[in-house]
Amino acid sequence: MASDFHVLAPDFRGYGDSERKAIDATRGIADLSDDVVALLDTLEIEGPVDLLGWSAGGNVVIRKFENAAEILQLPEQAIFNCTGLGAGKLFDDPELIPIKGQLSFLMPQPGVDYNLLGGNQYMFVRSDGIALGGTYSKNEWDTAVDPVVRDRMIAGHQRMFDGMRRLQGSTTHPNS
């Protein structure tokens, strides 16, 4: 194919060496389409372009539903419900309420290649950083970051690691 065409194989945002730029949840796949157009513009590629894609077997389709009956009409066998705060209205269920959680992200740390679960706190290592979590606010509709909750969560993780350091320092190893 490369002998007949000029082939480009860009990484989508967040993959490979691409920019760690978030996808706007209200635009979804349109952000990725805009990225391809921007790349073509930057490279000054004009005229007809053949675009090919490959997949690991899944599709992302963004649709708006007015009620659960519309969802049940879908032909797909597996559906991921990502309606978030709109779930109560969509399913006509006043008992569905939001549970707000907050995450804080640390830069990647060399040597930190493990996850932790302790009490009501957790730490998950990702390729783009370390996710700290452990907050839970029932019936909280506000999606803004609460700096008091964030600071309390980070301090709790710090106490957990300080405690592990103290334990490590007081432990006598049989081979030492």
Whole-number average pLDDT?
80
For the termini, the CA-CA separation is 62 Å
| Strand element count | 6
Q: What is the share of helical residues?
A: 25-40%
Helix run count:
4
Low-confidence stretches: none
* Total individual domains: 3
Q: What percent of residues are in strands? A: 5-15%
Shape assignment = flat
**Biggest sheet character:** 4 strands, antiparallel
Structural class call reads alpha+beta
Q: C-alpha Rg, in Å?
A: 23 Å
Strand order of the largest sheet: 2-5-4-3
Secondary-structure element order, N to C: HHHEEEEEEH
Keywords:
4 helices, four-stranded antiparallel β-sheet, 3 domains, 176 residues, 27% helix
Question: How would you sum up this structure, described in words?
Answer:
It is a single chain. The longest helix has 24 residues, at 147-170. This protein folds into three domains: 1-62, no CATH class; 64-96, no CATH class; 97-171, no CATH class. It is α+β, with helices and mostly antiparallel strands and 176 residues long. The mean pLDDT is 80. The strands form two sheets. It has a four-stranded antiparallel beta sheet, with helices on one face. Strands 1-6 form a two-stranded antiparallel ribbon. The protein is flat and about 70 Å long. It has helices at 29-42, 68-72, 87-90, 147-170, and strands at 99-100, 103-106, 116-118, 121-126, 129-133, 137-138. Strand 4 (121-126) and strand 5 (129-133) form a beta hairpin.
